[in-house]
Amino acid sequence: MNEPDTPAPTETAPRRASIGARRNPAAETAILAAARGLLAEKGYAGFSIDEVARRAGAGKPTIYRWWPSKADLFIAVYAADKAAAIAVPDTGSLAADLAGYTAALWRFWRETPSGAAFRALLAEAQASEQAMTALREKFLPLRLADLGCVFTRAAGRGEIAAADAESLLQLYIGFHWVHLLTERIDEDAALIDRMARLIVRAGRPDTAAPPSR
């Protein structure tokens, strides 16, 4: 007499209970770990809420409640990985701070799965309003807060005009993104140092543009 077929075991993790709007720390840790592992294996193109839920043993409604889109979940992983890999410098010199941070950021983009996937998020945001909203309203405020203190400290030391700090920060971010989008993020100390000096020179109080009337 033939035995009934036994279902093959799956690799799905045991289902983790949600505790409503308040995040369950164990579930959150499992979801982020699953997302990080999936990015390492399949990159941003193979990154999906369905697969993260399966690997983490979490319900999709829980993930969507905490991270409304694939882009939101990716940003959470990226932010955690970046914070662990890069410390915001405070050398007492804006040029030195910018040069050190740039070298570390470009290395992060080259060498980590979440860093390597970041360019794909920028591309997706050009066609997806949901991804653009996550980029504009969640990612950028975090990055501006990280780096804003570097420029604020420089203004306090008199290196740059306080009124120009925000504009200089945006110029600095633009420099990064144009190099990322054109795949030119190999470490180039001379280029990075020149950029840092130009930012400082442009922001010097004695050369800052007068306010518009």
Automatic annotation (TrEMBL):
Extent of Low complexity compositional bias: 1-17
Pfam families: TetR_C_11, TetR_N
Coiled coil: none
SUPFAM superfamilies per the UniProt record, alphabetical: Homeodomain-like, Tetracyclin repressor-like, C-terminal domain
Start-end of DNA-binding region: 48-67
Region ranges (Disordered): 1-22
Domain of life: Bacteria
Keywords, ordered alphabetically: DNA-binding, Transcription, Transcription regulation
Domain (HTH tetR-type): residue spans on this chain: 25-85
InterPro entries with a match to the protein in the record: Homeodomain-like_sf, HTH-type_TetR-like_transc_reg, HTH_TetR, Tet_transcr_reg_TetR-rel_C_sf, TetR_C
UniProt keyword annotation of Transcription present: yes
PANTHER family: HTH-TYPE TRANSCRIPTIONAL REGULATOR RUTR, TETR-FAMILY TRANSCRIPTIONAL REGULATOR
Protein name per the record: TetR/AcrR family transcriptional regulator
Provenance organism: Rhodoplanes tepidamans
Top-level taxonomy: Bacteria, Pseudomonadati, Pseudomonadota, Alphaproteobacteria, Hyphomicrobiales
